[in-house]
Design goal:
Elements lengths: L1 E10 L3 E8 L19 E11 L15 E3 L2 E6 L10
Antiparallel strand pairs: 1-2, 1-3, 3-4, 3-5
Length: about 90
Amino acid sequence: MAARGGVMTIRRSGLVRSERFKVEDGAAKLRVPIEEGHVPNLHVHVDLVGAAPRTRDDGTVDPNLAPRPATPRARSTCGSRRASARCS
């Protein structure tokens, strides 16, 4: 999938922050500032928007078809009680 951009949302008992970002050269670096009031149970969600090739029934790519939408997601939860802790 070739991602073009995405949205990162940070949640804890509701939305804390939302940020749109671009993917350049297949990568994006996101910073998540964690404050004392955000932990424990801080949830970070990353949703990407892009396209992937369409395939035939046998699994081979069909270059005659338009790419299909692709939206992979990632989630992480910080359960630490300290904002200075590293979360993954």
